[in-house]
Amino acid sequence: FFLLFFLDQKVNGETISKTSGPRKQKHHQRSRKDKPQQHDFSHPLLAAALKGHSGSVTCLDFSSNGKYLVSCADDRTVRIWSTKDFLEREHRCIRANVELDHATLVRFSPDSRAFIIWLANEETIRVFKMTKKEDGNFTFTAAPEDFPKKHKAPIINIGIAETGKFIMTASSDTTILIWDLKGEVLANINTNQMNNAFAAVSPCGSTYTPTKCTTSDVKVWEVCFGKGGDFREVTRAFELKGHTAGVYSFSFSNDSRRMVTVSKDGTWKLWDTDVEYKKQQDPYLLFTGKCEVKEPCRIALSPDARVLAISSCTSITVYNTRMGEKEEHFVNVHGEYITDLVFDINSRYLVSCGDRAIRVFHNTAGYRAIVEEMNGMLKKATNEATRERLHQQIKDAQNALDSIYAKKN
Fold first, then answer.
1. d(CA 248, CA 260)
2. DSSP 343-409
3. pLDDT of residue 131
4. Bigger pLDDT: 350 or 16?
5. C-alpha dihedral, 147 to 162 to 233 to 238, nearest 10°
């Protein structure tokens, strides 16, 4: 499992509810009188607007089985949405109430049966188990105790390894902590006087973090466990070098073989990270693209690595990774700065948050990339079974595009 750096009270399950149709970390509860008006946004590629929250949504995460999207907001709730309802008129969600606090970050467990949140006021991790009832609703049971408070600076991200062996928390100073699932600290990674600005656990179990403006490098660490599952150590794996200014954010493909970074130097980079770093092999730079970005800025790579999206303030731009071409541009998507940007695990949707609504976009750029890629492979294919498979993939992607545009027209 690897880690990277870049510079610069209890929840109770409720019944199912139905709804239709500049980034600032919130450390206080928004008063009801202070509630802003809902931002109005429309676009032909907007698949859904999830509007259950009454406060600003700060974080999103898809379950590994692709069935659910979890969101948290400063309205003291965590909501779990059914992805199969994204194209329906009504969007089902199950609400969990966070009493006397609110969550700023949320992450599903690898088995999709639990989630963790970062509590804004208590400044710690709380773990919840999800139990599905016969009627389809969930009940939420919090662990007997929250994690101990260890960080001294504001938290910037949390993550869970896909293996389920550790949890990562990173703060805006030089501290990254590796925990076991019971709240014991396994390791403290100190980034040596370089403050963290972002951190994440890769799908293969790595954690990545950029550091503040003073460096343009992204450092990767491996969290090592023995054959018996016991924790051993955290070691440096490799670095991504090439940007000429601080890195804002990064993202991974589903198999961790590709990675994208976006920087203050006005470029994004696509990397091949499928390397034997223990033999001193460095990641390969595959492509450098230009972009216009302002802080706050996030980047998301689709799980199949065919497209990427970059959010800058309140707008989103989508690029293909094959030629680096701009595919879509969504302006003023949210009334506040975009706080999170993610693709679903099947690369069908791009989802963002930043105000009270969660915007779900069709990933038409991804379908177009499939058609282009498969057509290129079809010209070289000689095996009949391979040609049939490629024809079917092209047909499925084209049918998806035709369906999306037919509904919008």
1. 11
2. E-TTSSEEEEESSS-EEEEE-HHHHHHHHHHHHHHHHH---HHHHHHHHHHHHHHHHHHHHHHHHH-
3. 87
4. 350
5. -120
- The mean predicted confidence, pLDDT, of the chain is 87
CA–CA separation, 300 and 345 (whole Å): 12
In this prediction, residue 276 carries a pLDDT of 87
143/108: higher pLDDT: 108
Q: Are 333 and 359 in contact (CB under 8 A)?
A: yes
Query: What's the pLDDT at 99?
Result: 80
Q: Is 29 exposed, middle or buried (0-12, 13-18, 19+ CB in 10 A)?
A: middle
Tokens of 27: 């450390």
Q: Where are the domains of the chain?
A: 2-362, 363-409
CA distance to 86, 241, 290, 320, per residue, from 331 (Å): 21, 31, 18, 18
382 Cβ partners below 8 Å, 6+ apart? none
Q: CB within 8 A of 377, min separation 6: which ones?
A: 390
Q: How deeply is 303 buried, as exposed, middle or buried, from its count of CB atoms within 10 A (0-12, 13-18, 19+)?
A: buried
Place of tokens 């701009």: 326
Bridge-based pairing state of the strands 46-50 and 11-20: unpaired
Single-letter residue type at 17: S
For residues 183 and 145, the answer to whether their CB atoms sit within 8 Å is yes
Q: Which residue has the tokens 């690369």?
A: 347
- pLDDT value for 11: 38
Kindly tell me if the per-residue pLDDT of 34 is higher than 70.
no
Catalogue the E-assigned strands of 161-314.
Answer: 167-171, 175-179, 185-190, 200-201, 207-209, 211, 218-225, 231-240, 247-252, 258-263, 267-272, 284-290, 297-301, 307-312
Does 209 have pLDDT greater than 70? no
Q: In the prediction, which pLDDT does 199 show?
A: 87
Handedness of CA 382, 386, 388, 390 (dihedral sign): negative
Quick one: pLDDT at residue 204? Answer: 74
pLDDT of residue 407 exceeding 60, the answer is yes
Residue 143 carries which side chain, given as an amino acid letter? A
16 vs 382, higher pLDDT: 382
Q: Which CATH architecture has domain 2-362?
A: 7 Propeller (2.130)
CB 323 within 8 A of CB 308: no
Of 188, 216, 204, the residue nearest 6 (C-alpha): 216
Nearest 10 degrees: CA dihedral of 134, 139, 144, 147? 130
